Protein backbone atom coordinates (compact mmCIF):
# COMPACT_ATOMS: atom_id res chain seq x y z
CA UNK A 1 0.00 0.00 0.00
CA UNK A 2 2.69 2.41 0.29
CA UNK A 3 2.82 2.91 -3.32
CA UNK A 4 -0.60 4.12 -3.77
CA UNK A 5 -0.21 6.37 -0.74
CA UNK A 6 2.90 7.85 -2.25
CA UNK A 7 1.07 8.41 -5.50
CA UNK A 8 -1.81 10.01 -3.66
CA UNK A 9 0.60 12.16 -1.68
CA UNK A 10 2.41 13.04 -4.89
CA UNK A 11 -0.80 14.04 -6.52
CA UNK A 12 -1.95 15.96 -3.47
CA UNK A 13 1.35 17.82 -3.26
CA UNK A 14 1.44 18.72 -6.96
CA UNK A 15 -0.80 21.81 -6.55
CA UNK A 16 1.40 22.94 -3.64
CA UNK A 17 4.53 22.44 -5.75
CA UNK A 18 2.92 24.26 -8.64
CA UNK A 19 1.90 27.11 -6.33
CA UNK A 20 5.40 27.23 -4.82
CA UNK A 21 6.97 27.26 -8.29
CA UNK A 22 4.59 29.99 -9.41
CA UNK A 23 5.34 32.00 -6.25
CA UNK A 24 9.08 31.46 -6.77
CA UNK A 25 8.79 32.54 -10.44
CA UNK A 26 6.74 35.57 -9.39
CA UNK A 27 9.29 36.42 -6.69
CA UNK A 28 12.15 35.93 -9.16
CA UNK A 29 10.35 38.07 -11.74
CA UNK A 30 9.79 40.77 -9.08
CA UNK A 31 13.43 40.60 -8.01
CA UNK A 32 14.48 40.78 -11.67
CA UNK A 33 12.11 43.72 -12.31
CA UNK A 34 13.45 45.49 -9.23
CA UNK A 35 17.03 44.78 -10.31
CA UNK A 36 16.34 46.19 -13.81
CA UNK A 37 14.61 49.22 -12.31
CA UNK A 38 17.51 49.77 -9.88
CA UNK A 39 19.97 49.32 -12.77
CA UNK A 40 18.05 51.93 -14.82
CA UNK A 41 18.01 54.31 -11.82
CA UNK A 42 21.74 53.81 -11.22
CA UNK A 43 22.51 54.37 -14.91
CA UNK A 44 20.36 57.52 -14.95
CA UNK A 45 22.12 58.78 -11.80
CA UNK A 46 25.50 57.93 -13.32
CA UNK A 47 24.59 59.79 -16.54
CA UNK A 48 23.42 62.82 -14.55
CA UNK A 49 26.59 62.75 -12.47
CA UNK A 50 28.72 62.36 -15.61
CA UNK A 51 26.85 65.24 -17.30
CA UNK A 52 27.32 67.43 -14.20
CA UNK A 53 31.01 66.51 -14.00
CA UNK A 54 31.43 67.24 -17.70
CA UNK A 55 29.67 70.60 -17.36
CA UNK A 56 31.80 71.46 -14.32
CA UNK A 57 34.97 70.37 -16.14
CA UNK A 58 34.01 72.45 -19.16
CA UNK A 59 33.28 75.48 -16.99
CA UNK A 60 36.54 74.97 -15.06
CA UNK A 61 38.43 74.52 -18.32
CA UNK A 62 36.87 77.65 -19.80
CA UNK A 63 37.66 79.63 -16.64
CA UNK A 64 41.23 78.36 -16.63
CA UNK A 65 41.62 79.09 -20.34
CA UNK A 66 40.26 82.59 -19.79
CA UNK A 67 42.70 83.12 -16.94
CA UNK A 68 45.60 81.86 -19.07
CA UNK A 69 44.57 84.05 -22.01
CA UNK A 70 44.18 87.08 -19.73
CA UNK A 71 47.59 86.43 -18.18
CA UNK A 72 49.19 86.08 -21.61
CA UNK A 73 47.48 89.23 -22.85
CA UNK A 74 48.67 91.14 -19.78
CA UNK A 75 52.21 89.81 -20.30
CA UNK A 76 52.05 90.77 -23.99
CA UNK A 77 50.91 94.27 -23.04
CA UNK A 78 53.76 94.55 -20.53
CA UNK A 79 56.25 93.25 -23.09
CA UNK A 80 54.93 95.67 -25.70
CA UNK A 81 55.07 98.56 -23.24
CA UNK A 82 58.61 97.59 -22.23
CA UNK A 83 59.66 97.42 -25.90
CA UNK A 84 58.07 100.79 -26.60
CA UNK A 85 59.74 102.38 -23.58
CA UNK A 86 63.09 100.87 -24.55
CA UNK A 87 62.73 102.23 -28.08
CA UNK A 88 61.75 105.64 -26.71
CA UNK A 89 64.72 105.59 -24.34
CA UNK A 90 67.04 104.64 -27.22
CA UNK A 91 65.62 107.43 -29.38
CA UNK A 92 65.88 109.93 -26.53
CA UNK A 93 69.48 108.89 -25.87
CA UNK A 94 70.24 109.31 -29.58
CA UNK A 95 68.61 112.77 -29.58
CA UNK A 96 70.53 113.70 -26.45
CA UNK A 97 73.81 112.51 -27.96
CA UNK A 98 73.14 114.48 -31.16
CA UNK A 99 72.26 117.63 -29.20
CA UNK A 100 75.44 117.35 -27.14
CA UNK A 101 77.54 116.68 -30.26
CA UNK A 102 75.90 119.59 -32.09
CA UNK A 103 76.59 121.86 -29.13
CA UNK A 104 80.24 120.79 -29.00
CA UNK A 105 80.50 121.54 -32.73
CA UNK A 106 79.52 125.16 -31.99
CA UNK A 107 83.02 125.62 -30.53
CA UNK A 108 84.33 125.33 -34.09
CA UNK A 109 81.83 127.79 -35.57
CA UNK A 110 82.71 131.39 -36.60
CA UNK A 111 80.51 133.01 -33.92
CA UNK A 112 81.89 130.93 -31.05
CA UNK A 113 84.08 133.67 -29.54
CA UNK A 114 81.09 135.96 -29.09
CA UNK A 115 79.11 133.07 -27.53
CA UNK A 116 82.03 132.24 -25.22
CA UNK A 117 82.32 135.88 -24.14
CA UNK A 118 78.55 135.99 -23.41
CA UNK A 119 78.82 132.80 -21.31
CA UNK A 120 81.77 134.21 -19.33
CA UNK A 121 79.82 137.43 -18.64
CA UNK A 122 76.83 135.40 -17.49
CA UNK A 123 79.07 133.37 -15.13
CA UNK A 124 80.50 136.54 -13.60
CA UNK A 125 77.02 138.02 -13.27
CA UNK A 126 75.77 134.94 -11.40
CA UNK A 127 78.82 134.17 -9.23
CA UNK A 128 80.26 137.65 -8.81
CA UNK A 129 83.15 139.53 -10.34
CA UNK A 130 85.71 137.62 -8.25
CA UNK A 131 84.67 134.28 -9.85
CA UNK A 132 87.22 132.25 -11.79
CA UNK A 133 86.12 131.48 -15.34
CA UNK A 134 87.89 128.76 -17.34
CA UNK A 135 87.36 127.49 -20.87
CA UNK A 136 86.00 123.95 -21.24
CA UNK A 137 87.51 121.46 -23.70
CA UNK A 138 83.93 120.77 -24.91
CA UNK A 139 83.27 124.46 -25.52
CA UNK A 140 81.71 126.95 -23.16
CA UNK A 141 83.00 127.83 -19.70
CA UNK A 142 83.23 126.52 -16.16
CA UNK A 143 83.15 129.08 -13.35
CA UNK A 144 83.68 128.91 -9.62
CA UNK A 145 83.60 131.27 -6.68
CA UNK A 146 84.43 129.70 -3.32
CA UNK A 147 82.36 126.53 -3.00
CA UNK A 148 79.90 127.54 -5.72
CA UNK A 149 80.28 126.08 -9.22
CA UNK A 150 78.60 126.99 -12.49
CA UNK A 151 78.70 124.73 -15.55
CA UNK A 152 78.08 126.66 -18.75
CA UNK A 153 79.71 124.13 -21.07
CA UNK A 154 78.05 123.73 -24.46
CA UNK A 155 77.02 120.05 -23.92
CA UNK A 156 75.52 120.90 -20.52
CA UNK A 157 73.62 123.87 -21.96
CA UNK A 158 72.32 121.62 -24.76
CA UNK A 159 71.23 119.04 -22.18
CA UNK A 160 69.36 121.68 -20.17
CA UNK A 161 67.65 122.96 -23.31
CA UNK A 162 66.59 119.41 -24.15
CA UNK A 163 65.20 118.91 -20.64
CA UNK A 164 63.21 122.16 -20.90
CA UNK A 165 61.71 121.00 -24.19
CA UNK A 166 60.19 117.90 -22.55
CA UNK A 167 56.68 118.54 -23.91
CA UNK A 168 57.99 118.94 -27.44
CA UNK A 169 60.06 115.77 -27.13
CA UNK A 170 57.03 113.91 -25.71
CA UNK A 171 55.15 114.79 -28.91
CA UNK A 172 57.65 112.61 -30.76
CA UNK A 173 56.20 109.56 -28.95
CA UNK A 174 52.60 110.59 -29.69
CA UNK A 175 53.15 110.61 -33.45
What topology emerges from the helices and strands here?
Elements lengths: L1 H104 L6 H16 L4 E4 L4 E6 L2 E6 H11 L1 H9 L1
Antiparallel strand pairs: 1-2, 2-3
Helix pairs in contact: 1-3
* Average of per-residue pLDDT values: 89
The total tally of domains equals: 1
Q: Helix count, per DSSP?
A: 4
Uncertain stretches: none
User: Helix/strand-derived class?
Assistant: mainly alpha
Report how far apart the termini are.
Answer: 127 Å
Which geometry do the CA atoms define? rod-shaped
Describe this structure in words.
The chain is mainly alpha-helical. The protein has helices at residues 2-105, 112-127, 154-164, 166-174; strands spanning 132-135, 140-145, 148-153. The protein has one domain. The protein has four helices and three strands. The chain has a three-stranded antiparallel sheet with strand order 1-2-3. Helix 1 crosses helix 3. The termini are far apart. The model has no long low-confidence stretch (mean pLDDT 89).
Task: List key phrases describing it.
175 residues; single chain; mainly alpha; 80% helix; three-stranded antiparallel beta sheet
Task: Give a short overview.
This protein has about 180 residues and is mainly alpha-helical. It contains 4 helices and 3 strands, in the order ααβββαα. A 3-stranded antiparallel β-sheet has the order 1-2-3.
Amino acid sequence: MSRPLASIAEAALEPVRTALRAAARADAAEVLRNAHQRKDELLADARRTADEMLATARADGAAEATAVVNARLAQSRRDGRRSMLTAQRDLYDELRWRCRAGAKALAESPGYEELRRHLAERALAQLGSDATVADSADGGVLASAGDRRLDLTLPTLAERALERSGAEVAELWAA
